[in-house]
Queue: 3 jobs
Job 1
Amino acid sequence: MNAISNTGQEIREYYLNCYETTAPAGQQWTTATAAPELVSLVRSGALPQGASVLDIGCGVGSESVYLAGAGFKVTAVDIAPQAVERGRALAEVYGYSVDWHVGDVLDLPFGQGTFDAVTDRGCFHCLRAHERERFAQEVARMLRPGGLYVLRCVSSQRPGQVRPDDASHFVRTFGVSSTELWEAFGPHFQAEHMELGSASPDADPSSPYGWYCLWRRRAE
Ligand SMILES: C[S@@+](CC[C@H](N)C(=O)[O-])C[C@H]1O[C@@H](n2cnc3c(N)ncnc32)[C@H](O)[C@@H]1O
């Protein structure tokens, strides 16, 4: 894989290229199924049965297909056509119905209040600082009032750290601070949950941390 660069266009080209040239097993972010926090939300009923859910930056659709199998009405979108095609093929194998779209999350065709929930594993942090406000507005627009935005993104901070951690190129490229999250989502959402965690704190103390946040769309 090529090194990741920093402009919005370079990031998008990075993903387009990865999905064209690298199998899912070689993509660091791709997992075969949904993340534990999403599974917990489904099992707890926090995502109500049969809700309409948009998986934004769905990649090869691991979480979209999981949600469809769990009975949700799923729409999935990614900028990379090859990723969406893999998702479509996976859903077909299982016989699940997902409404697949290729598109840019900053310019989606869905109407106001279309979705009960939006899930995001690793898409928001692909956007550059000047695109974040627009992204948050778009997510808020597509969610019904009271709808839930489930965000997972790379953190620029580690626990107890106020200043962003610029230790690695990866964290500098994708990391988002708590202040930046509040600036983007605070105007439209109430924070129900903000958790800073590491995938492997014991195995690799230097591994990046990530945010798991639940944002509730304000009723206006
Ligand atoms: C870290 S990957 C996560 C993929 C998937 N959610 C998963 O968990 O496997 C980020 C995804 O966001 C997509 N993406 C980045 N910028 C995007 C944009 N502006 N519009 C739509 N998708 C975008 C990438 O193509 C990539 O599939």
Job 2
Amino acid sequence: MEDPIVEMMSDKTKEWFAYAVVGMIWADGRVDQAEIKYLKGILSFLKDKRLITSVLEMIKQNTMPDLTPIKIDNDQAIAIMKHLTSLSIVDEELATSEEVFLKDAAVHLGLSTALADKFIALARKRLGGNRFPASLLVGEDSVEVSCFGFTENACMIFTDRLVNPLARLTLKLHTNPRADRETGFYNPIVAEAQWCREVKSNVAKYVVKAAMKRPISSEEGARLVFSLPEESAIKKTFEPDFNCLLGFFVSCRSCGEKDIPFWQLRTRSLHANNNIFGIPLYDKAFGNSDFCDYNLFQVSVCPNCLFASNQIDYFQRQDKAVGVSLFDVSSFKSRWQSGLTKRKKLVGKNDSWLFSGERTLNQAVISYELAVLTHDQLGQLGDDEDFATHQRKSISFKLTQAEMLMNKGERAMAEQIMLKVKKRLENAFPNMAREAGIRAAHLIVLISIYFKNLENVGEYLNYLNNYSRRHPVKAGSKESKLLNLAVRQTTEAWQSKDQWAYDSMHSFHLDN
Ligand SMILES: [Zn+2]
């Protein structure tokens, strides 16, 4: 046992502690395997062989040691009480005699009775806190029992009926845990008895450990025993400040964080004017819609692990049944954890904007940065096609940052981002296939013309112009539409390259 406080104890205190352990073990009148195991762990600090022998002898002889008051410092007293409390429940039960023993020990250690009560409350809480009335069917017999200590796949049952190990059990939890009023049952839980032990308790004669084959479901009472909010209490949607938006609550697939707001643009509510790189600038509202700059908060961010995306499917919608994730959550999670400090630094101390529908330009830029980190990592998980999908998303987040900054007069920053995008595309281009290659060549040409970096433009223009000779492209397909757009726009830009260059443009929009 490693416990620095215990290590520091005087020999006299250690001896007192060892005797207290024996007393605790005997408090419920029997010795349990788990208790002996715990005792051996505690004895390992008693380097004194004589004392160890005497303690083990006491256990063998059923001797209850006499505890006398001892004067020690508070920290040591509390450390001893913590150990005794853990020991009191290793047999999964807290008998009245054990409670009495804990109280006596606390008083002998010079602690207040109020503190002793706290330790007892802690022990009770660890035992599972609430007890849930249920009807237990074993063979032909149905008995009223109470259950506690629920984990996903197991629970303890207080019962007056002896249950054989391996017996098949059917357990039905009462929907109303207060037994004063019967309101019905949840669906039956099928389980198997692992062991049945006699207990000295006012509640029942035996404790049975029931093991279930699969996790307990909400139809079987999971929400009740794990004190989860009822289905109806789960927040599903909210009303955003602007009526052009829909508000959904989502949960994070990576860390499980709940109630993350997600804003979705209503169809036909805002007019979008695309810039030369295909990024929308929202410039006016249709009909009775309120106007807002949707680019500011289209990325939703998990405030806990800072997972970020503008696509609701990468989260779990709380208004929908739990669905299959678009990505391998466990591989994502293990890698995502490592960058958390960096991401937290990016967000800074004030993270309240993550929850609010109002964002400054700077905050929105950060949200896109988090989305780039998220989708770059998602791209590492799957095949080439997944990689291309996420790469495309990351590029479009960077382009949106640039568009927003440019419109707010932050031209230098916006152009810096565009140059980085170009570099990223050029590096990735040799490994890009089909649609990804078309998109990349398209953007590289436009960015090069914008910056008047014309040396390599020919290479990418040729790639686009000769594309259909190298790859058969099905007429009317998505690939064919992408290609036609890319060829048309790059040809136009090349032909009037002076007008598409930075020194003739006030924004990334041609009409300005
Ligand atoms: Zn999260």
Job 3
Amino acid sequence: MAAVEPDKPKRWTLASLPYQRGIATALARALQTGRLAHAYLFAGPRGVGKEAVAYALAAAALCPEQPGEGCGVCNTCRRLFADVHPDVRRYEATGAHFDLDLVREILAEAGRPPSEGRRKLLLVVEPEKMTYRSDAPANAFLKTLEEPPGNATFLLVSHDPRQLLPTVVSRCVAVHFPRLTTAEVTEALVRDFGREAAEAAELAAWAEGTLTEASAAGAAAEAARYESALAVMEAVVRGGVVEALEAAQATRQREEALALVAACAEVAHEVAALQAGTPEALRLPAWEGRCRELAASGGLPSAEELWAGCGKAALALRANCNVALTLEELFLSWVS
Ligand SMILES: [Zn+2]
């Protein structure tokens, strides 16, 4: 799947954000009436658009084309979405702990005047980690929150605000991000993660209103499909016909069978690349070891035959043929 960080789609403006509309509208109004606070705490579960809103707010604050709104496409907007604008900085702990050095870096940055615009926006992601080892980083940070430099706005993004020092929380305007609706998650999966509508709806149903859960479930489902495809092909190579047929019978749903066949075709591609001595063409690095063993075994038909078989099976599945029988026929055709 596409390597998209679920909480960081940085291309929305306050006007175009597809979720958290109430928050976007309130922030736009605060900015346009000159009442933007010096520090905001964006609090809520992972994957509900907190960073998307933070970047949209930064665009609205700095965009010269559409001041107060952000155009999303000008040089300023594009640079800040790409994290290369000098007045929009994002800070995140590299490990489990937000250490004092990083806090000092933030404070030094806050003390410098903006390079280009009238304001700078400093995103601090997971400030709750400033208290994990000692309170020193949080206390140092607090000092600046108490006397914020005139033209810096802090945007604290917290997935677990209960861990923050109360004194930090009380210096910020708290914005509580609710979970997304199932419809919003479904739409985002289709629009931003390239999922099919039916699959997106299924993932969204148990994602509990967050894109993180939904996209992780998608990645897990994808890994499970490659796992199944490899298991079947390894069984074929070992002469384990019964095992392969059991896998066919265990696959009940048509969509699931189509995904399994597609995963088999992908594995066939990997095996062919390895047999041709072109490992640079590999698409599934996580499975390279097992694909290498399959390639070395010589126990599978040629990639062309595998692809032809998978293509025929996919057509049959789309034409409403029996799911288990179609898979059985495919897997049996691989047994020499
Ligand atoms: Zn712009």
